[in-house]
Design a protein that fits this description.
Number of helices: 11
Shape: globular
Order of helices and strands: HHHHHHHHHHHEE
Structural class: mainly alpha
Number of domains: 1
Strand order of the largest sheet: 1-2
Distance between the termini: 22 Å
Strand content: under 5%
Number of strands: 2
Length: 281
């Protein structure tokens, strides 16, 4: 019992560190005294990219090794993750080949459903590795990619929070379950864009009522960002929100059935506190 508690606390610590580093990577420009010495966004962000790649991929490897060692999981879990990431990367390739309206991307659909079905840890890996793999396939590798991996990981990691709402509505495996997840997906359609804007916004210059400058204070910072977001990004992100909502609402129920059927077929035992499936042979 003590070993299980120790494993859970260690797993929680790993994700806490990963989340903390991700949050810091978005917010440090607002407190860094050296910020104004950077003349361009590329100069400011390019230097941190190798470190962030190393950290994120290292976290993914540590998580996989930790799960395998602590839960005695065989290669089926790793194979499952690889298959799901490959499917989602193919969806993003289709998106690049046939651009969807605005900011809609089909990849969040599977990230959310996998995180909801299999738990926060697999959800985080699903999001981060999908963005990494699909960027290599589509040529989308750049200094922005680590930040995209963090945010996509948070999408999957937060999906299990919807279980409480679904239980409260007594909606599991009912139409209301897909509706609840569709609303969740719509919310992340806006949040993803709003968070990713912070990667570049502090380095931009323009109208004083829309752009950040050092020393303006917390309230003024959020006021200016709100004006900037409404003027430049909201319509784009709303298309992502609407796309997520419709895709989950329509395709969510059969996809959830398939994911659950796969879990039952291979005898996954699920502990909601550990939020990772375990294979029994």
């Amino acid at each position: 019992m003590k070993d299980k508690l120790k494993d859970r606390l260690l797993g929680f610590a790993i994700y806490l560190v990963a989340t903390g580093v991700g949050v810091a990577s978005f917010l440090y420009p607002f407190v860094s005294p050296a910020l104004r010495s950077h003349t361009t966004l590329n100069n400011a962000r390019a230097g941190e990219t190798p470190l962030m790649y190393t950290f994120l991929l290292g976290i993914c490897v540590v998580v996989l090794l930790f799960e395998v060692q602590s839960q005695s999981v065989d290669t089926k879990l790793i194979a499952l993750l690889g298959i799901l990431v490959a499917i989602n990367s193919a969806l993003r390739f289709i998106e690049v080949a046939i651009p969807a309206p605005g900011g809609f991307s089909p990849i969040f659909f599977l990230i959310i459903l996998v995180g909801y079905t299999y738990g926060a840890r697999l959800g985080f890996l699903m999001g981060a590795l999908t963005l990494f793999t699909s960027a290599i396939i589509t040529g989308g590798v750049g200094p922005w990619l680590p930040s995209q991996m963090f945010v996509a990981g948070w999408v999957g990691m937060s999906a299990p929070l919807m279980r409480a709402a679904v239980r409260l509505l007594n909606a599991e495996q009912k139409p209301a379950e897909a509706l609840a997840l569709a609303i969740f997906g719509a919310a992340w359609g806006v949040l993803y864009g709003a968070i990713m804007n912070l990667w570049s916004w502090p380095y931009m210059a323009g109208s004083p009522d829309q752009y950040w400058s050092a020393g303006i204070g917390f309230a003024a910072t959020w006021q200016r960002y709100g004006v900037y977001y409404l003027a430049t990004s909201l319509v784009w992100d709303l298309s992502c929100a609407v796309g997520n909502f419709l895709l989950i609402l329509i395709a969510g129920p059969p996809t959830l059935r398939a994911l659950r059927r796969f879990k039952r077929r291979f005898s996954f035992s699920y502990d909601p506190l550990q939020v990772i499936p375990q294979v029994r042979l």
